[in-house]
C-alpha cells in the first residue's frame, strides 16, 4: 500500500512539473509582460485582458489574443497618467499610436500598418503641431513640414525613400520664404 502511495505522489509530481513547463513555454513565447495579471474573456477563446502593476500602480493594460498584443494597449507613468496608447493586431502595431507628455497633452500621433509607420505622423508641442510628415511602409515619403509656435510653416521639404529630394524651402515667422535649396536623393545640387 505504501508503494502505491509513493508511486502516486511521484506521478502527480511529474504531471505537475510537465504542466508548469508547458505554461512557462507558453508565457515565454508570448508578448505578455512578466508579472501581468490575466483575466480571460469567456466569449472569445484565447482573448485575455492583462494588467501590469508596479507596486500598487497600474503601469500598463490591454488585451492579448493567444499571447500576442491585440487591440489597444495603454501605458501609464508613475503618477498614473496615460503616457502611450498603441493599437495592435495579432502582435503587430496596426492603427493609431498616441504618445502623451507629462502634462497629458498629445506629444505625437502616428499610424501603423503591419508594424511599420504608415501615413501621417504628427509631432505636437502642447496643442500646436510642430511637425508633419508622411510615411510609407516605415520610410519617410512625401512632404515634411515644420512649424513655428505661431503655426506658420518654418520648413517644407520633399522626401522620397527616406531621403530629401526636390525643392526644400525655409520661411521666416511671417511666412516669407528666406532660403530655397534643391536636393537629388539626399545630395544638395543647388542653393
Structure description:
The chain is mainly β and 191 residues long. The chain is built from one helix and 17 strands. The N and C termini lie far apart (96 Å). A hairpin with a 2-residue loop joins strand 16 (177-184) and strand 17. It has one helix spanning 2-28; strands at residues 37-40, 47-54, 57-65, 68-76, 82-89, 92-100, 106-113, 116-117, 119-125, 128-136, 139-140, 142-147, 153-160, 163-164, 166-171, 177-184, 187-190. It has two domains: 33-117; 129-191, Single Sheet (Histone H3 K4-specific methyltransferase SET7/9 N-terminal domain), CATH 2.20.110. It has a 17-stranded antiparallel β-sheet that branches.
Please outline the helices and strands.
Layout: H1 2-28, E1 37-40, E2 47-54, E3 57-65, E4 68-76, E5 82-89, E6 92-100, E7 106-113, E8 116-117, E9 119-125, E10 128-136, E11 139-140, E12 142-147, E13 153-160, E14 163-164, E15 166-171, E16 177-184, E17 187-190
Antiparallel strand pairs: 1-2, 2-3, 3-4, 4-5, 5-6, 6-7, 7-8, 7-9, 9-10, 10-11, 10-12, 12-13, 13-14, 13-15, 15-16, 16-17
Beta-strand residue percentage: over 45%
Structural class computed from helices and strand pairing: mainly beta
Q: How many structural domains does the protein architecture include?
A: 2
Give me the strand/helix succession.
HEEEEEEEEEEEEEEEEE
Whole-number mean pLDDT? 86
Rounded Rg? 25 Å
Q: Give unreliable regions as ranges.
A: 1-27
Globular, elongated, flat, extended or rod-shaped: what is the shape? Answer: elongated
Number of helices: 1
Tell me how many strands there are: 17
Characterize the largest beta sheet: strand count, sense, and whether it forms a barrel. 17 strands, antiparallel
Give the CA-CA distance, first to last residue.
Answer: 96 Å
Helix content: 10-25%
Amino acid at each position: 500500500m505504501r508503494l502505491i502511495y509513493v508511486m502516486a505522489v511521484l506521478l502527480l509530481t511529474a504531471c505537475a512539473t510537465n504542466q508548469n513547463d508547458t505554461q512557462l513555454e507558453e508565457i515565454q513565447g508570448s508578448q505578455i509582460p512578466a508579472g501581468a495579471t490575466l483575466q480571460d474573456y469567456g466569449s472569445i477563446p484565447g482573448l485575455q485582458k492583462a494588467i501590469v502593476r508596479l507596486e500598487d500602480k497600474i503601469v500598463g493594460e490591454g488585451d492579448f489574443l493567444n499571447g500576442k498584443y491585440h487591440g489597444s494597449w495603454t501605458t501609464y507613468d508613475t503618477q498614473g497618467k496615460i503616457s502611450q496608447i498603441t493599437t495592435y493586431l495579432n502582435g503587430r502595431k496596426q492603427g493609431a499610436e498616441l504618445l502623451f507628455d507629462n502634462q497629458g497633452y498629445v506629444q505625437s500621433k502616428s499610424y501603423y500598418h503591419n508594424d511599420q509607420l504608415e501615413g501621417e505622423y504628427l509631432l505636437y508641442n502642447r496643442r500646436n503641431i510642430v511637425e508633419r510628415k508622411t510615411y510609407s511602409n516605415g520610410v519617410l515619403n512625401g512632404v515634411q513640414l515644420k512649424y513655428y509656435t505661431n503655426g506658420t510653416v518654418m520648413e517644407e521639404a520633399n522626401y522620397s525613400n527616406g531621403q530629401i529630394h526636390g525643392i526644400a524651402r525655409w520661411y521666416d515667422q511671417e511666412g516669407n520664404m528666406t532660403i530655397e535649396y534643391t536636393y537629388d536623393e539626399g545630395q544638395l545640387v543647388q542653393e
